[in-house]
Design goal:
Number of helices: 13
CATH topology of the domain at 1-88: Serine Threonine Protein Phosphatase 5, Tetratricopeptide repeat
Largest sheet: none
Helix content: over 70%
Order of helices and strands: HHHHHHHHHHHHH
Radius of gyration: 20 Å
Structural class: mainly alpha
Number of strands: 0
CATH superfamily of the domain at 1-88: Tetratricopeptide repeat domain
CATH class of the domain at 1-88: Mainly Alpha
Oligomer: single chain
Shape: elongated
Strand content: under 5%
Protein backbone atom coordinates (compact mmCIF):
# COMPACT_ATOMS: atom_id res chain seq x y z
CA UNK A 1 0.00 0.00 0.00
CA UNK A 2 2.79 2.41 0.93
CA UNK A 3 4.69 1.74 -2.32
CA UNK A 4 1.54 2.42 -4.33
CA UNK A 5 0.96 5.65 -2.42
CA UNK A 6 4.55 6.79 -2.92
CA UNK A 7 4.32 6.02 -6.63
CA UNK A 8 1.06 8.00 -6.83
CA UNK A 9 2.75 11.11 -5.43
CA UNK A 10 5.90 10.56 -7.48
CA UNK A 11 3.89 10.40 -10.69
CA UNK A 12 1.82 13.41 -9.66
CA UNK A 13 4.92 15.47 -9.04
CA UNK A 14 5.94 14.94 -12.67
CA UNK A 15 2.86 16.75 -13.95
CA UNK A 16 3.75 20.03 -15.69
CA UNK A 17 2.67 23.36 -14.32
CA UNK A 18 1.98 22.27 -10.74
CA UNK A 19 1.41 25.27 -8.46
CA UNK A 20 3.90 25.44 -5.59
CA UNK A 21 1.09 24.92 -3.07
CA UNK A 22 0.10 21.61 -4.71
CA UNK A 23 3.72 20.52 -5.05
CA UNK A 24 4.22 21.30 -1.35
CA UNK A 25 1.26 19.14 -0.29
CA UNK A 26 2.30 16.23 -2.52
CA UNK A 27 5.87 16.32 -1.24
CA UNK A 28 4.63 16.52 2.34
CA UNK A 29 2.39 13.49 1.82
CA UNK A 30 5.16 11.54 0.12
CA UNK A 31 7.54 12.35 2.97
CA UNK A 32 5.02 10.91 5.42
CA UNK A 33 4.71 7.76 3.32
CA UNK A 34 8.48 7.42 3.17
CA UNK A 35 8.80 7.82 6.93
CA UNK A 36 6.26 5.02 7.36
CA UNK A 37 8.62 2.63 5.57
CA UNK A 38 11.68 4.13 7.31
CA UNK A 39 13.06 5.73 4.16
CA UNK A 40 14.39 8.64 6.16
CA UNK A 41 16.75 9.90 3.47
CA UNK A 42 13.88 10.18 1.00
CA UNK A 43 11.62 11.74 3.61
CA UNK A 44 14.27 14.31 4.50
CA UNK A 45 14.79 15.29 0.86
CA UNK A 46 11.04 15.80 0.40
CA UNK A 47 10.74 17.86 3.57
CA UNK A 48 13.75 19.97 2.66
CA UNK A 49 12.12 20.78 -0.68
CA UNK A 50 8.94 21.69 1.21
CA UNK A 51 10.98 24.02 3.39
CA UNK A 52 12.51 25.62 0.31
CA UNK A 53 9.03 26.13 -1.16
CA UNK A 54 7.61 27.60 2.06
CA UNK A 55 9.95 28.29 4.96
CA UNK A 56 7.13 29.65 7.16
CA UNK A 57 5.57 26.23 7.89
CA UNK A 58 6.76 25.35 11.38
CA UNK A 59 5.37 21.80 11.17
CA UNK A 60 7.74 21.10 8.26
CA UNK A 61 10.69 22.23 10.36
CA UNK A 62 9.61 20.02 13.27
CA UNK A 63 9.29 17.07 10.88
CA UNK A 64 12.80 17.74 9.57
CA UNK A 65 14.03 17.55 13.15
CA UNK A 66 12.18 14.28 13.71
CA UNK A 67 13.69 12.70 10.62
CA UNK A 68 17.19 13.77 11.67
CA UNK A 69 16.54 12.21 15.08
CA UNK A 70 15.48 8.94 13.45
CA UNK A 71 18.71 9.03 11.41
CA UNK A 72 20.69 9.44 14.64
CA UNK A 73 21.91 12.91 13.69
CA UNK A 74 21.15 14.66 16.97
CA UNK A 75 23.04 17.92 16.27
CA UNK A 76 20.99 18.45 13.11
CA UNK A 77 17.79 17.42 14.90
CA UNK A 78 18.51 20.04 17.56
CA UNK A 79 19.33 22.67 14.93
CA UNK A 80 15.99 22.22 13.19
CA UNK A 81 14.06 22.24 16.47
CA UNK A 82 15.74 25.46 17.55
CA UNK A 83 14.92 26.96 14.16
CA UNK A 84 11.27 26.00 14.76
CA UNK A 85 11.41 27.66 18.18
CA UNK A 86 12.76 30.85 16.62
CA UNK A 87 9.77 30.98 14.28
CA UNK A 88 7.22 30.06 16.97
CA UNK A 89 8.74 30.97 20.35
CA UNK A 90 5.59 30.28 22.37
CA UNK A 91 4.52 27.03 20.69
CA UNK A 92 4.05 24.44 23.44
CA UNK A 93 4.47 21.44 21.15
CA UNK A 94 7.90 22.69 20.15
CA UNK A 95 8.82 23.37 23.78
CA UNK A 96 7.73 19.84 24.67
CA UNK A 97 9.76 18.40 21.79
CA UNK A 98 12.83 20.32 22.93
CA UNK A 99 12.33 19.10 26.48
CA UNK A 100 12.13 15.49 25.32
CA UNK A 101 15.09 15.99 22.97
CA UNK A 102 17.30 17.09 25.86
CA UNK A 103 16.05 14.22 28.03
CA UNK A 104 17.14 11.80 25.32
CA UNK A 105 20.54 13.49 25.32
CA UNK A 106 20.73 13.43 29.14
CA UNK A 107 20.87 17.22 29.42
CA UNK A 108 18.30 17.22 32.19
CA UNK A 109 18.89 20.78 33.38
CA UNK A 110 18.21 22.20 29.93
CA UNK A 111 15.20 19.92 29.52
CA UNK A 112 13.69 21.30 32.73
CA UNK A 113 13.77 24.87 31.39
CA UNK A 114 11.51 23.85 28.50
CA UNK A 115 9.24 21.69 30.65
CA UNK A 116 8.88 24.54 33.15
CA UNK A 117 7.59 26.70 30.32
CA UNK A 118 5.04 24.09 29.25
CA UNK A 119 3.75 23.66 32.79
CA UNK A 120 3.50 27.41 33.32
CA UNK A 121 1.74 28.08 30.01
CA UNK A 122 -0.33 24.91 29.52
CA UNK A 123 -3.53 27.01 29.36
CA UNK A 124 -2.24 28.46 26.07
CA UNK A 125 -2.46 25.05 24.37
CA UNK A 126 -4.89 25.48 21.45
CA UNK A 127 -6.96 22.35 22.23
CA UNK A 128 -8.70 22.93 25.59
CA UNK A 129 -9.58 19.26 26.11
CA UNK A 130 -5.90 18.28 25.79
CA UNK A 131 -4.45 20.85 28.17
CA UNK A 132 -4.35 18.58 31.21
CA UNK A 133 -2.75 15.84 29.11
CA UNK A 134 -0.05 18.26 27.98
CA UNK A 135 0.50 19.38 31.57
CA UNK A 136 0.53 15.79 32.86
CA UNK A 137 3.17 14.63 30.38
CA UNK A 138 5.32 17.67 31.15
CA UNK A 139 5.18 16.92 34.88
CA UNK A 140 6.10 13.28 34.22
CA UNK A 141 9.07 14.26 32.08
CA UNK A 142 10.23 16.95 34.50
CA UNK A 143 9.99 14.44 37.33
CA UNK A 144 12.22 12.08 35.37
CA UNK A 145 14.75 14.91 34.98
CA UNK A 146 14.63 15.73 38.70
CA UNK A 147 15.13 12.06 39.54
CA UNK A 148 18.19 11.87 37.31
CA UNK A 149 19.57 15.02 38.94
CA UNK A 150 19.15 13.45 42.39
CA UNK A 151 16.23 15.67 43.41
CA UNK A 152 13.93 12.87 44.57
CA UNK A 153 11.49 15.03 46.54
CA UNK A 154 10.90 17.28 43.55
CA UNK A 155 10.66 14.23 41.32
CA UNK A 156 8.05 12.58 43.57
CA UNK A 157 5.95 15.75 43.60
CA UNK A 158 6.11 16.01 39.81
CA UNK A 159 5.13 12.37 39.36
CA UNK A 160 2.09 12.87 41.60
CA UNK A 161 1.09 15.92 39.55
CA UNK A 162 1.63 13.95 36.36
CA UNK A 163 -0.73 11.24 37.62
CA UNK A 164 -3.27 13.84 38.76
CA UNK A 165 -3.51 15.59 35.40
CA UNK A 166 -3.00 12.61 33.08
CA UNK A 167 -3.77 9.37 34.96
CA UNK A 168 -3.88 7.35 31.73
CA UNK A 169 -0.19 7.98 31.02
CA UNK A 170 1.58 4.67 31.61
CA UNK A 171 4.99 6.34 31.28
CA UNK A 172 4.64 8.35 34.48
CA UNK A 173 4.33 5.09 36.42
CA UNK A 174 7.41 3.74 34.69
CA UNK A 175 9.32 6.88 35.65
CA UNK A 176 8.05 6.76 39.24
CA UNK A 177 8.99 3.08 39.48
CA UNK A 178 12.56 3.83 38.43
CA UNK A 179 12.83 6.40 41.20
CA UNK A 180 11.44 3.96 43.77
CA UNK A 181 13.80 1.23 42.61
CA UNK A 182 16.67 3.66 43.07
CA UNK A 183 15.39 4.38 46.58
CA UNK A 184 15.03 0.61 47.22
CA UNK A 185 11.29 1.04 47.78
CA UNK A 186 10.51 -2.13 45.90
CA UNK A 187 6.90 -2.59 47.04
CA UNK A 188 6.05 0.92 45.82
CA UNK A 189 8.01 0.33 42.62
CA UNK A 190 6.14 -2.89 41.89
CA UNK A 191 2.80 -1.17 42.35
CA UNK A 192 3.92 1.46 39.88
CA UNK A 193 5.09 -1.18 37.42
CA UNK A 194 1.76 -3.01 37.70
CA UNK A 195 -0.04 0.25 36.93
CA UNK A 196 2.17 0.88 33.91
CA UNK A 197 1.45 -2.58 32.50
CA UNK A 198 -2.27 -2.19 33.17
CA UNK A 199 -2.29 1.08 31.24
CA UNK A 200 -0.73 -0.55 28.20
CA UNK A 201 2.94 0.38 28.54
CA UNK A 202 4.20 -2.80 26.87
CA UNK A 203 2.03 -2.40 23.78
CA UNK A 204 3.08 1.21 23.35
CA UNK A 205 6.74 1.18 24.36
CA UNK A 206 8.04 -2.38 24.59
CA UNK A 207 8.99 -4.88 27.31
CA UNK A 208 11.04 -2.63 29.62
CA UNK A 209 8.50 -2.53 32.46
CA UNK A 210 7.85 -6.28 32.37
CA UNK A 211 11.60 -6.90 32.54
CA UNK A 212 11.80 -4.64 35.60
CA UNK A 213 8.96 -6.63 37.17
CA UNK A 214 10.84 -9.88 36.66
CA UNK A 215 13.94 -8.39 38.27
CA UNK A 216 12.42 -6.57 41.24
CA UNK A 217 8.94 -8.00 41.95
CA UNK A 218 7.79 -11.34 43.29
Amino acid sequence: MFDESEDYYTQGLKLPGLPDSVRFEMLLNRSSTRQSVRDFDGAFNDLLTCFQLDSTQVSTIVNLSSVMREKGNFPESERWLLKAEQKAPTDLTIKNNLGYFYIENKDYTKAITYLDYVIEHYNDYPEPLERNTVRGYAYSNRGFCQYNLGNNKKAAADFESGIKYCPQNSYVYRNKALMNIGLKKYDDACRDLNMAVGLGFTDMYGPEVEELQKKHCR
